[in-house]
Design brief:
heterodimer; A: alpha/beta; Rossmann fold; six-stranded mixed β-sheet; four-stranded antiparallel β-sheet; 12 strands; B: 321 residues; ABC transporter involved in vitamin B12 uptake, BtuC
Chain lengths: 246, 321
Amino acid sequence: MTLAVSNLSVEARLAGVTAELRPGEVTAICGPNGAGKSSLLAVLAGLLAPTGGEVLLGGAPIVAMPLQERARAFGYLPQVPELAWDVTVETLVSLGRLPWKGAPAAEAAEAIEQAITALDLQDLRYRPVSSLSGGARARALMARVLAGRPSWLLADEPLAALDLAHGGALARRFRNQTDAGAGVVLVLHDLAMAMNHADRVLVLDRGRLAADGPPAEALSPQVIAQVWRVRARWLGEPGARALAIS
Amino acid sequence: MSARTLLALSLAIALALPLSILAGRVWIDPLDPQVGNAVPILLELRLPRSLLALVVGAGLGAAGAAMQGYLRNPLADPGLFGIAPGAALGAVLSFWTGWAATGWALPLFALLGAAGAMALLALIAGRSAGIALFTLAGLMIASLAGALMSLAISLSPTPFAMSEIVVWLMGAVADRSWREVWIAAPLTLAGIALLIAAGRALDALTLGEMAARSLGVDPVRLQVLLILGIGLTVGAGVAVAGIIGFVGLIVPHLIRPATDRRPSSLILPSALAGAALLLAADVLCRVLPLAGGELRLGIALSLIGAPFFLALLLRIKRGLA
């Protein structure tokens, strides 16, 4: 089911954004600080009410969906993840199953196991989250989202705290999600990550959609010059591009 | 939730309850034929007192665990919502008007006071589901009820009413009857059931307000559950025993390390541990020799609780908590 936004506005943050996101794709939302990236993601997840326009999942407005159904459809990772109590990795991941009240226990156990394995947390599963490194913590928080098996995965800067190897591994993990039919929407400030791992990029500039298309188009040197006011060019091969700022 | 923790706590209560009935300024041996009126003393005086300690302690323990889960703060206390001061204000008014002498009026006034505080909170909950604003509103209600209580005390019609109010506010389960048990037990049990029903939403809140909403938590429904749950447990407790502090703060701390630290795993064990703590503290009050009467339960718990709280603050300062 496609996830569409039409003429979406949030006071002082988004103005008239229209786009249609497809399952099976990794969509990156990019833009300078304060462009409205996190607001757009929160609106997509149904967590921020737009002042104008609406969000449609498969043609139906998400505000009309029952809360539990919406929680099952969308997995959301906030930009600044919180964890009030020092639970173990396994308990944290199991919180991702909260929307699935009433589902068989075996299914929950399998989903938790898969999420732990996918993010390489097997050896850390009984460790309190406070004892983990920043990167392992970020992976555990991501595993929590995966455990809910959402059909849309919405993550705000999921790669920011990860080192090179784990960042790459997580980016490939997103590809597994889209191969399985899920839609992935990521807010990314790292344009090279967006260039190399996204199928599609939305560029926001002061609340407006400045570009929308395949990464090579939406993140062209012209768009970067216009939105970020930086002269830059792409180096390297497709899939392994790096941005050179001049 | 660990079944072992629950079993251990239940066993402790099962052992402590019969002992608590026998303990007192005078130890009673029910098998001693010399003590003629042992059975009425045990059944009409000591059993309701012990049961009341269990009921009030269970309510305070469960309310504290739910509050800490809701505010995501280990220093939260059920008194923060202003429900306990609201109930106390009701009780003070029953003394002030002289109706307290009729027996049923005191708990009834206290329950009305708790309901008033709950209604004010609910009015605010309907408007904004934000936790910070909601807590501030609770603090304001607590502060308003406290001011009105002081006003009532300062304007007491007689010195006798004033001393009655002051002593009652110190909190105790002494000299209570089955009537208080019948008032407090059903309300407290219903309140604990509501708090347990809020457990999943409290677990989701572990990840923050936004993430909790993304997991399907309805913040308004959660606030309503908590207002009712904490209102019933704390309101009923204050109505029959006065203000008893620190149980709601200490007990979840003592229990948390024995659980997986999810708020939902904490509510039932905290209820049991709160019951055990209050029963033990009340026995202590009964057997401690003290000139001029018994140590008041509320004072005893504050004497234990305040140093505990200080130690906790020091631990947090060192980054250990």
